[in-house]
Amino acid sequence: MNDFSLLAISPIDGRYYKNTRRLKKIFSEYAFFKFRVKIEIKWLQKLSSISEVLELPALTTKNVQILNNIIDNFNFNDAKEIKNIEKITNHDIKSIEYFLKKKISEKIIDYKNIINFIHFSCTSEDINNLAYAYMMKISKIDILLPYWSKILITLKSMAKDFKNISMLSRTHGQPATPSTLGKEIINFYYRLYRQFKQLKKINILGKFNGATGNYNAHIIAYPLINWKKVSEEFVTSLGFHWNPYTTQIEPHDYISEIFSCICRFNTILINLNQDFWGYISLNYFIQKNRKNEVGSSTMPHKINPIDFEKSEGNLGLSNAIMNHMISKLPISRWQRDLSDSTVLRNIGIAIGYSMISYDAILSGLQNIQVNNIKIKEDLYNQWQLLSEPIQTVMRRFGISDSYEQLKKLTRGNNINFQDIHKYIDNLTIPKKEKKILKQITPMNYIGDAINIVQNICN
User: Fold this and answer.
1) 51 an active-site residue?
2) Residue 143 DSSP symbol
3) Choosing from 49, 149, 237, 296, which is the catalytic residue?
4) Residue 363 designated active-site
5) Are residues 354 and 305 in the same domain?
6) Quick one: average pLDDT of 345-361?
7) Residue 322 maps to a domain
8) How confident is the model over 83-118, as pLDDT tens digits?
9) pTM, rounded to two decimals
10) Nearest to 384 by CA among 175, 181, 172
11) What is the mean pLDDT of the chain?
12) Which of 139, 173, 123, 114 is nearest to 350 (CA)?
């Protein structure tokens, strides 16, 4: 850990920097500038390809390369130069425009006609919304989906490995109809996989239509150009879906949709963390003993489930930030207000907390092993669980008050297999059914749990 990390206010840039450092290239102020410079230059190149824009001749191959080099070679000093200009203008987008005019005039001989078309007919939000679209697309494809895939692969593998391990279920915290460990894990897998598929389907939107979304300046300057077509071509050329109906801003509905999906995924993981924490507490899972790790400052014996606790806490922080964005970002007073601007700058923080939690849960899942002895012991001592199948078969054969009879036998009573078998022997049902009932144990009364897991694993 370097000095900056030690002095950082946010743990995302400090204690957990190793987990989140990839986000610098996506959500930092430097990255924000780089994306916006790219969009400004791409728009300039698009304008130069429109034959009706006579005042901006088609760019030569050399000039196109020069402009592309400004994008590709954008560096920290360029970002600092823009910040220095911003100290004078007090406007970040205008500072980028002035930066590009200076940069192009230094590198292109016939620059005078070109620089007049930098930021032509644009509002700041034409540039900003596409920059955020880049951030959302990159974080979705390069960060979120790969993390989610790792979690899904891990859970699916665990479910397959543990599909035959019968375990005591608990409803309301009390002993209930048995399941298998694999089946309980595959439940989480399926829930998370639904969110994975939904996130993949959410489109990243972009707009490019001027100060209030009507192409006012565009049409005044060049009334014969089909600006809607130009806008759609430009936005889609960057890899986004075109939003044709906006005010000054792209309304951020798709960001809200993405965050809603992430929050659901994270909430399911909170549920998973809490269940695994509980299973560790029951000693169903044994945590691997890391030789040099300390579990308590005063109790040497302890191995705490810190990965699951760390994951749960950071998922909560991530969801808290994203839930504010979900309700805040789609709202803008009239045609535009700036209250969304400061909120959008925190997208990286919300995703950062999720990354920390994903790393923690993956670590936690990799550092546990099943305690088969404890799981079997707990299950074997719960013969009263067989009251469910017995009373169900009794109902089939028309025995009245079957539920009430089994309730009297088992509710609040500690019974064993002799008690169960004695009761079955006295039932007025066919001998074949008695034989089937007497073959049931708490260990094999698991329904279709194994096949349910196998169906998904196949």
Assistant:
1) no
2) I
3) 296
4) no
5) yes
6) 98
7) yes
8) 999 999 999 999 999 999 999 999 998 888 899 999
9) 0.95
10) 175
11) 96
12) 139
